[in-house]
Structure prediction request, 696 residues.
Amino acid sequence: MELTERKRQILKVVVEDYIHTAEPVGSRTIAGRMGGSVSSATIRNELADLVEMGYLEQPHTSAGRVPSPKGYRLYVNELMERQKLSIDETEKINQSLHVKMEELDHLLAQAGRAVSAFVKYPAYITAASRRHVTAKRFDLLPVDEHKCIVVMMMSDSRVRSQLLRMQLKVDLEQLPALVTLLNSHFTAVSADEMNQRLMNVAEQVPPQLFLLLSQVIAYAADALDEAGQREIVTAGARALLKLPEFRDADKAHQLMSFLADSKEKLPMPEEEPMKILIGPENVSEALQDASVVVASYDIGDDMRGLIGVVGPTRMDYAAVAARLSGFAAGLTRLFEKQELPPKEEGKE
Amino acid sequence: MELTERKRQILKVVVEDYIHTAEPVGSRTIAGRMGGSVSSATIRNELADLVEMGYLEQPHTSAGRVPSPKGYRLYVNELMERQKLSIDETEKINQSLHVKMEELDHLLAQAGRAVSAFVKYPAYITAASRRHVTAKRFDLLPVDEHKCIVVMMMSDSRVRSQLLRMQLKVDLEQLPALVTLLNSHFTAVSADEMNQRLMNVAEQVPPQLFLLLSQVIAYAADALDEAGQREIVTAGARALLKLPEFRDADKAHQLMSFLADSKEKLPMPEEEPMKILIGPENVSEALQDASVVVASYDIGDDMRGLIGVVGPTRMDYAAVAARLSGFAAGLTRLFEKQELPPKEEGKE
DNA sequence: CTTTAGCACTCCGGGGAAGAGAGTGCTAAA
DNA sequence: TTTAGCACTCTCTTCCCCGGAGTGCTAAAG
Prediction:
């Protein structure tokens, strides 16, 4: 059977109406929306065809029609009109990102909340380094004879520091030598390689210095490890409760638990600037009845992040997609301006 | 009317039964729970008295009885048996806190999640400095001629660091002098005072150094400011959805929004080691139908934190109180061992 | 005076039954 | 091919009835 232009129009009307009402759409309504050029009976014939072709579903005989995942897919790919954000709204989005730049973590959390607030669905956000992070520069600052501060700059320009408590008294005069050793032997290599090299220099270094050295390396390996991991922040999960499909507390609880716990399983496409996953297109069990829209943004040249929105399959794809790319663009621009990771900040 | 011992026993039974079933408690049930020593008719007389005295309420004629806030209060103050945690459970609590110590932030989030998971109610947690935090020691590390890292140790031993981009080229030879200046003039004073002093030294310092100095001071003021603020972390809000009183999505949404947004308004008693606030005893509008249990813990000598649990007035006070003090004790001990804030860690 | 048994009464909640409403599918005509 | 008409289906709401749980009261017993 052929998918005529009129069928496509009808499908579009059904999807858009259902997105807003969450109620099955009847032939009368559709006829009305189409300007009265055709009667409801004609629409009914077309609807029967669309059901047969798998684009629509019928909750039961004598109910209106509801889009199937396949129907949403067609809508998203071909029927949906790309919304353009009003200048006003773009302004608001950028404003919501215009915070005093603090740590990346905080900024992400803030952005996640903002996205969720804008689109009225739960959101998640993450940043991941594009290449392997290594140590670029070390320094040790003496505090007193039992403590010193280790400062490490990483290859992506982020800085981390830590107060170290020394088990053995160390002659403060020797610290500069240790710093030189660190910078010459332990930069630009992986954590594993660091530990390797630590073993190699074991005999060349006085014991009490070696102890401190290994503390520093342990800290560095930790910090690099953490820096390489993607941490995912979620926000606005409670927005689900406002949706009719999650009025059932159990369903809502299920999806919220998924969002809170199984963060690794959230869709994380690597390539496309924006990706939409509808219902069963998701791999996660918990997302079979949900849709996800994800967009990527750049953090300087070395890092990349993703912002995603989770909602019912009956999601307002056009609106979400437009706002999401607005946010992605806003974030990219934000990080461009600052060049590389913005303010680097120590944190207890 | 007098509150006889038998009335107190009956009240206790009603509260404990209602806590577990969420159903109004009838006279038959109570008679059963009390060992059959009295008949249900007698209980009914007593119940009528307890209603009159305001300790119990009746949803409607011919329903069982439900505790009033006043009833819960009496229960908590006088009737409730302080639960002792099993060794096994104490073990589990401590284990859940036995994470690789990272930043305080992460630890708090972790602890919050653990508390919520243990008691099955939403939890919130915060840490606040007991006294004013000031800068204790500064250092500047040159990176290249356009960048340097500022490291600041604060009076509570926390360390923060930040990469600074210098607008003007600075002769690296001059950095040590600047560090000396920072340590002599800008330590142990408030952010306001810092800015004050910055003005005072303006003329004694070469212009390009002054620019860097003011960047450092601005960063320090920011960091100190942030360190003084209490950040509140909430966790496990979705646990609400499992409770019969929040099966209504709107009610749940309301309280969850409160938890997410109005963090400043969560109960934060300053003195007691543990405080229980029942329904209308809460000042916040949103907590009128909820109860809160808060406990405090120590972070070394200078800081103090609070962990709280939010639930329905029908909360299992004994269980929550026991677990909460378990957590508070665990946290206090954790920080004692480490002396002062644990690992200090830089974070982008 | 307190406790208890007995009993009528109240109220909630579940389970049809009935009816309204929305929407379909089919037929026959335009 | 489109449309009007119409019978039919299914859901959702409302109403009512009834069973069950629990009370309050009364009168008798301890």
